[in-house]
Design a protein that fits this description.
There is one protein chain. The chain is α/β, with parallel strands linked by helices. It has two domains: about 140 residues, Aspartate/ornithine carbamoyltransferase (Rossmann fold); about 150 residues, 3-Layer(aba) Sandwich (Rossmann fold). Helices cover about 35% and strands about 15% of the residues. The protein is built from eleven helices and nine strands. A five-stranded parallel sheet has the order 7-6-5-8-9, covered by helices on one side. Strands 2-1-3-4 form a four-stranded parallel sheet. Helix 4 links the parallel strand 3 and strand 4. Helix 5 crosses helix 6. The longest helix is centred in the C-terminal third of the chain and has 20 residues. It is globular, with a radius of gyration of 19 Å. It starts with 14 loop residues before the first helix and ends in a 7-residue tail after the last helix. About 45% of the residues are buried. Bound molecules: phosphoric acid mono(formamide)ester. Phosphoric acid mono(formamide)ester binds next to helix 2. One of its GO terms (molecular function) is amino acid binding.
Length: about 300
Amino acid sequence: MLKGRHLIEPGDFQIEEIESIMQLADNIITNPKGYSLVCKGKLLASLFYEPSTRTRFSFEAAMLRLGGEIIGFDDPNNSSVSKGESLGDTIRTIECYSDIAVIRHPREGTARLVSKFAKEMPIINAGDGGHEHPTQTLTDLLTIRKYKGGCDNHVVGVCGDLLFGRTIHSLVKTLNRYEGITFIFISPKELKMPENILHQLNPDSYRETTNLDDVIGELDILYMSRVQRERFVSEEEYLRLKDYYILDKKKMRKAKEDMIVMHPLPRVNEIAIEVDDDPRAVYFKQAKCGMYVRMALIAKLLGVEDNND
Ligand code: CP
C-alpha cells in the first residue's frame, strides 16, 4: 500500500511496490482518458530550489493530466525562503494548502529532512544534491521495461560522471535488486562510482574501466550521463573532464544491434546529435516515460489509482 508514503530514495519502496507503479504506468499509457480525472480536486506543490526541465515539467504535466492542479515555485527567491524562512516552516505551511509535494534541493538529505515535517502530505524527492533522484529511477525502469522487455538479466554500461550523478546512484542501487544484472562502470578515475555504492554490490556483478570503446560491444544498455558542472569545486577540473566521453556514430557501430542508449538528460556534449536518429537512442522516449511513471506515482501516493471509465 503506497497511499500516504514519502518517496525519498528508491530503497523506500519494495521491488513489488515499484513493479506496481510500473504496471499502473502501463495502464495509463494504454488508457490515458481513463485516468484523466482521478486527481480532480487535488493539489500538487512543486518546490524547485534548483533548475529543472524534465522533472518539473513532467510532474506538473502528470498532475494536470490526472485532473489535478499545481501550486509552487521554480525560483525560491519568490517565496519567503528569501526572507530567511526555514524549510521546516515552509513545508508545514505548504501542507496547509496541498495534498502532495515534490521538492528538488541542491543539498543532500534535504528531502528526507523535510519529510519529517510533513505529517499528512506525501513528499517526493525530485533530486537532492549528488545523492538520489528516485523518480528518475522509476523513469529509467519503465524505459528499460518498455524497450528491453523487463529489468532482469542485462549487461548495463554506466558511463560518465559516476561520482556526482545522482540519477546513476539511484538507478544502480535499484537495478542491483533485480536478477542477473552485470554493471560495467565507465568513467575517468576522478569520477569513479563512490565506494559506499560499490560496497553495496556483489563484487562479481561489476567491473570498472575508463575505456568505452573496449566494452561497448558487450552492453545491452548504455546509460550515458553528463559531467555535473554544478557539483565541481574547480572549474578547471570540470573543463578538463567534461568531454572525456562523446558517444558518436563511430562508437555506435561497435554496439549490439539491440543495445539501447539511455540518458537522464540534460545532455551537454556527451552524445553527438548524429546519434539521435539511431533507433537504439531512446533518451527522448525515456523523458516521455517520466511523465507516465510520475502520473502513476502521484495516483498511488494519493490512493486514487482506480480509473474513472
Ligand atoms: N533528468 C532530470 O532530472 O532532468 P532535469 O534536471 O531537467 O529535471
